[in-house]
Amino acid sequence: MSINREISTALMVAAAEGQADDVRLLLSYGADVNGYGDTALILAARRGQAEVTRLLIEAGADGVAALRGAAWDGHADAARLLIDAGEDGGAALLLAARRGHADIARLLIDAGADVAARDADGDTALMLAVRRDYADIARLLIDAGADVAARDADGDTALMLAVRRDYADIARLLIDAGADVAAKGAGGDTALMVAAAEGQAEVARLLIDAGADVDMQGAGGGTALMAAAAEGQADDVRLLLSYGADVNARDGYGDTALILAARRGQAEIARLLIDAGADVDMQGAGGGTALMAAAAEGQADDVRLLLSYGADVNARDGYGDTALILAARRGQAEIARLLIDAGADVDMQGAGGGTALVAAAAEGQAEIARLLIDADADVDAQGERGGTALVWAAWKGQADAARLLIDVGVGCGAALRSAAWDDQADAARLLIDAGADVKGKDGGAALMLATRRGHADIARLLIEAGADRRRAL
After folding, report:
1. How confident is the model over 137-179, as pLDDT tens digits?
2. CB 327, CB 295: distance < 8 Å
3. Is 38 helix (H, G, I), strand (E, B) or coil?
4. I need a surface site. Which of 41, 102, 173, 182 has the fewest CB within 10 A?
């Protein structure tokens, strides 16, 4: 190591430790005040060594990075010396705001630091202060003219940042400074929608009192009431209703707050909405009602509630399905029982003409199929392409559902053909064992289909059971 490098390294050590006499001595020997990585001035400023900082400034040390260091570590005396030496404070102000050093932020602002400067992520000092709930620094910046309408790289304003974090005091400060309460943030939602979804009733009230439109639509056409309802925020729902929020407003998909609440299992919210005038049978996305949404998702408490308020148990969605059909298809046995007990028509046909029993059989929902059979569902009702519940069970390979239907006497012929067509060997074996007419026309037709489709295992089963091979030719 050269002698100059050794002296300069010693200068850094002395500066960091605040050894003023040693710094003077090393400077007198020509130590380089600006060399080799972190300079002596940076180290002194970051350690708050004011006297050494003054010596190094007088010796011509470059103070830009040192001022940033002083701001980062909160050393006001060192920062003041560097500011007095004429160093630019824009970047340092960003660091002081990030770290919560209000005294240094005040020094930098008083010295004319640019309050509109942005860091590498696109944040202003005001945004950095808001993100960390530094209200005192936010107030300093606002008083110095910081733009409360500026947006970060994601499109959020400072107010939106405060709301996302439930910082009520800073939100109030920004509102008082003229922040736009109607501005939409990243994703297209308003501050009120964010507050409602997060359960921030105090902030929501602030926004409404400042003029936020309770029915303004955000991303997907949703309102604040819908956001609160979907997330189960009862206090916010009550607040929004008290301010006249439209309880039957629809989002961009056609859903209402009640439908969203029912889908999410928010029974308390659903009750609040209904008591406030929500239409229990209003149709939303795909023509579905709140009862259908709750039924499909297995929300038993919501189903009970909606039925108690007179929801139409036999309403159809845009595809023709009922709540019972949806519950059967999704395997929601408890829901199916509730709907049947409430008078649901077990034989009503839905999408493709299928009944709830057809839907249950096709999806292998044997428990629900049994419920429906016990409720006198028509086991021979035909759905799409003329398929009965047993045909669909065989086609989809749903052995348990097929066995149940066979046990109640459903004919096996068409089901055998369906199993052969779709290569469902277990279902075919079950049907053969149950006495399907393998030696007659049903067996012959099934063999022909299996052969045509290349299902060797099915063909072998049928031949071994006595199917007429000539039918396969």
Report:
1. 999 999 999 999 999 999 999 999 999 999 999 999 999 999 9
2. yes
3. coil
4. 182
CA–CA distance, 442 with 448 (Å, rounded to integer)? 10
User: Residues 403-407: what's their mean pLDDT?
Assistant: 92
Output DSSP code: residue 440: S
The encoded tokens of residue 316 equal: 């159809």
| DSSP alpha helix (H) spans, 122-189 | 125-131, 135-143, 158-164, 168-176
Question: If DSSP codes are grouped into helix, strand and coil, which group holds residue 184?
Answer: strand
Helices 441-453 and 413-421 cross at an angle (nearest 10°) of 10
Is residue 313 a contact partner of residue 291, using CB atoms and an 8 Å limit? yes
Residue among 350, 338, 277 nearest 302 (CA)? 338
pTM to 2 decimals? 0.83
Q: Residue 117: which of 88, 140, 137 has the closest Cα?
A: 88
Q: What is the distance between the alpha carbons of residues 233 and 121, in angstroms, rounded to a whole number?
A: 33
List, as own/partner pairs, every contact residues 5-10 make where C-beta atoms lie below 8 angstroms and the sequence separation is at least 24, other chains included.
Answer: 5/35, 5/36, 7/31, 7/32, 8/32, 8/35, 8/36, 8/40, 9/36
Compute the C-alpha angle 240/245/248, nearest 5°.
125
Torsion angle in degrees (nearest 10) through CA of 334, 338, 339, 344: 130
pLDDT at residue 318 is higher than 50: yes
- State the average pLDDT over residues 46-50: 80
User: How is residue 353 annotated by DSSP?
Assistant: G
How far is the C-alpha of 252 from the C-alpha of 266, rounded, in Å? 21
With beta carbons less than 8 A apart as the criterion, state whether 468 and 443 touch.
Answer: yes
- In the three-class reduction of DSSP (H, G, I as helix; E, B as strand; rest coil), residue 388 is classed as coil
